[in-house]
Design a protein that fits this description.
Layout: H1 6-30, H2 38-98, H3 102-116, E1 121-127, E2 133-140, E3 155-157, H4 162-169, E4 173-175, H5 178-181, H6 186-193, E5 198-206, E6 209-218, H7 226-289, H8 293-333, H9 340-348
Antiparallel strand pairs: 1-2, 1-6, 2-3, 4-5, 5-6
Helix pairs in contact: 1-2, 2-3, 2-7, 3-7, 7-8
Length: 349
């Protein structure tokens, strides 16, 4: 008995009871009806009363069992969705732990995303450092991706684009028909031209800052709903954190390079300055020991040039220290300590 269709089962039971009642009524009428006596009639009525009660009880029991099965199926579906979500997050974390490369992780996880939300393409738009442009990446989930490594497909400006609007509002956007938005947003017009009819755009938020969007598009109208937003929001959060970590990793690399160059510059400047001071000192001694005007004029020129080089070295040291301070501020704003001592202080807080 298939309890997934309880209405059909109930209708079948009542149809059998009704058919049996009609057949028995015809037989009863054909063989004399009430001439069998009041006792037989009473037994007949009692039997049918019992049959009707059993039918009602059985149909209600079937309905209750069907509702219980539906509840278990919904719970099982919800559990499977949670498992899929956890598997997706685990896969993202594993890929990102091996390489903090968000476009590469996105390319590897596109097939998993399409299992959560059925769609024709998955897109990623990452905001550049100046906040004026988006680098977009696309994974075509219904065909073999021939690229060994993702690369930006189209670079969009932040203005007059749906992805720019989502980043500014920090709220998901469901586009049921791209045709209705094609005149207002350049990126939606590109989707509509490509035959894609609906889209779902989610902001990548990290520490309250939007750094891009995660997008899914479909060739069907009204393909996306709130449950799809709920399924993809945790994935978008992980992508956002990973992208910020990637940016900070680049910033730390620049800081370390700048720190090494600054230390080398300061060291060389100190050595050159020491040599210049020695030259200036010897020139002073020569100037005092030899009163020849021509020689003194030449020595004065050497001293002026040495002092000029000393001034240039001082400016180089100041510029190197300023640049090093700027890089340190950038790293500290991202929450990454620039030294073991700073790390210890961050941990103690």
């Amino acid at each position: 008995m298939n309890l997934r269709h309880p209405r059909a089962i109930v209708i079948g039971i009542w149809s059998l009871v009704l058919t049996f009642a009609i057949v028995q009524l015809i037989a009863w009428t054909a063989f004399g009806g009430t001439s069998h006596g009041s006792i037989v009639v009473l037994q007949f009525v009692i039997a049918w009363f019992v049959i009707l009660i059993l039918t009602v009880v059985s149909t209600r029991r079937i309905g209750g069992l069907a509702r219980t099965i539906r509840q278990h199926e919904r719970a099982r579906t919800a559990t499977l969705d949670q498992v899929e979500q956890l598997e997706m997050r685990n896969a993202i974390l594993q890929i990102i732990s091996r390489s903090v490369d968000v476009p590469l992780a996105f390319q590897a996880l596109a097939q998993r995303i399409v299992r959560l939300v059925p769609c024709d393409r998955v897109g990623l738009a990452l905001l550049t450092e100046d906040g004026q442009e988006f680098q977009t990446y696309t994974a075509r989930v219904n065909q073999v991706e021939r690229r060994s490594r993702p690369r930006p497909d189209v670079v969009f400006k932040a203005d007059r684009t749906a992805i720019g609007s989502v980043v500014r509002s920090r709220e998901p956007l469901i586009i049921n028909e791209t045709r209705a938005y094609a005149a207002d947003f350049l990126d939606v017009n590109v989707l509509h031209t490509a035959g894609l009819e609906s889209a779902l755009l989610l902001p990548l938020l990290a520490k309250g800052r939007a750094v891009g969007t995660l997008n899914v598009v479909s060739r069907q109208v009204n393909a996306f709903h709130q449950e799809h937003v709920d399924a993809l929001l945790p994935i978008a959060e992980i992508f956002a954190v990973a992208y910020v970590a990637q940016q900070l990793q680049v910033a730390v690399g620049k800081y370390q390079t700048m720190e090494a160059m600054s230390e080398l510059t300061l060291s060389i400047a100190a050595e050159i300055n020491s040599a210049l001071q020695t030259i200036i000192g010897h020139c002073d001694l020569l100037e005092r020991g030899y009163p020849d005007p021509n020689l003194q004029r030449d020595l004065a020129t050497v001293i002026r040039q040495a002092q000029r080089i000393t001034s240039l070295l001082e400016r180089m040291r100041a510029a190197a220290q300023e640049r090093l301070k700027e890089m340190a501020d950038t790293v500290n704003q991202g929450g990454i300590p620039s030294s073991p001592e700073a790390y210890g202080k961050a941990e103690s807080r």
